[in-house]
Amino acid sequence: MNRRSVIVVGAGVFGAWSALRLVRDGWAVTLVEAYGPANGRASSSDHSRVTRAGYGAIDIYTRWATESLTAWHWLAKVSGMRLVNECGVLFLGAHGSPLLDETAATFRQLGVAHERLPAATVAARYPQIGVIGLGDALFEPRAGAIRARDAVAAVVAHAVARGAKYRTARVDPLDETRTTPVVRTASGDVLHADAYVLACGPWLPTLLPLAVGGRIRATRQELLYFGVPPGDPRFGIERLPVWIDFAAGLYGIPDLDARGFKVGIDRHGAAIDPDSAERLVDDEAVALARAFLARRFPALAGAPLVDSRVCQYENTSTGDFLIDAHPTWPNVWIAGGGSGHGFKHGPAVGSHVADLLSGRTGVEPRFGLESKTSTAARAVF
Ligand SMILES: Cc1cc2nc3c(=O)[nH]c(=O)nc-3n(C[C@H](O)[C@H](O)[C@H](O)COP(=O)(O)OP(=O)(O)OC[C@H]3O[C@@H](n4cnc5c(N)ncnc54)[C@H](O)[C@@H]3O)c2cc1C
Fold it and tell me: Is residue 142 lining ligand 1, measured as CB closer than 6 Å?
């Protein structure tokens, strides 16, 4: 019997894991990518990404992050690479932050290990952290950081080793007025398959202007790496957890692989074109991060900027993923809308996509097209 065939467009974390899970399910998979897995323009690029199960009351993300963490460890084992660092994540909240209470309640319900730390305990345990203005914190010990670009490359390599084909090509925007989909590369080849998965991150609105269009907005996001003091191990990943300061809208990863102390600005930036944008950080972003460091990590107040990246979130209106069939073509699936928090969930997204294509599950309403509007109302953090 002929195997069913699928073309996955996009080798970011969502497309790569979709390809791997579909190969495992017996599909004949071709992964088509314009620039390369986790390339410098993609949302999945950069050295590291945070993994955490804490998501307030939205338990599907807690479950998916937990399931995905197991898969990331499996990938690390089969590829012989150090992909995950379980240094823990410290959720820092203002006094009475409901997000921390909701996260703790979800953790209790789902059996996720965690510890509630009064600000005084944070100060005692991590004297590098300035606790002025902080309420209780929540510590999730099995969370941490994933070596993002290496991890996506490993997923693609593993999918190819299991029989997927990898092809470098750019797919043209689809003509959504046709009754059946025609998926064509920029060089004019028509790509035939029984099913298609479009996992093009911030490019989805261009690829599917009618179905997606304003339902995903790409925003410019800055990541800053500050140099740690010489001979001082206090800001390394062995001595500090990943931290998220919800009130400040900033988060960071301690010095990992000597890249520097990473600070990410989680507030949505201006609109960005992922193809043509120049990736130079703004002075204001550096100043904002520096002012924050002076307060929260005082020893880094004068630290030099040693590296930086401009990336983009591909935001849906609420911050929930977009994983659904095309409204008129049932064999075309959309997987995107990572909204600044999707990386860690790559394995669960891939499994969900494979389940959808194999008919083992239905569309999750939270991820459906119908739940997405073009008006920003972020509800997932
Ligand atoms: C600054 C920043 C920090 C983040 N931090 C975290 C974090 O700490 N933890 C976390 O879990 N998540 C985080 N995220 C979110 C996460 O990185 C993204 O949600 C996730 O990487 C999205 O993956 P994707 O596969 O959907 O998109 P992408 O990685 O953008 O992949 C899409 C791919 O499709 C290809 N493509 C596009 N159009 C075409 C075409 N027409 N033909 C062929 N190929 C095409 C592109 O080249 C690209 O490789 C962060 C994101 C950013 C920007």
Answer: no
Distance CA 352, CA 335 (A): 10
pTM, whole model, 2 decimals?
A: 0.98
The number of beta carbons lying within 10 Å of the beta carbon of residue 350 is: 29
Residue 313, ligand 1, Cβ within 6 A: yes
Q: What is the mean pLDDT of residues 303-310?
A: 98
Enter the tokens of residue 271: 């609109």
- Beta-carbon neighbour count of residue 249 at 10 Å? 15
Burial class (CB in 10 A: 0-12, 13-18, 19+), 178: exposed
CB neighbours (10 Å) of residue 163?
A: 13
Cβ(357) – ligand 1 distance below 6 Å: no
pLDDT greater than 70 at residue 1? no
Q: What is the pLDDT of residue 138?
A: 97
324 or 374: whose pLDDT is higher? 324
Laid out side by side, the sheet with 28-33 consists of: 165-168, 28-33, 5-9, 195-198, 332-336, 322-325
Where are the extended beta strands (E) located within 231-288? 242-245, 250-253, 261-265
Ligand 1 centroid distance, CA of 43 (Å):
3
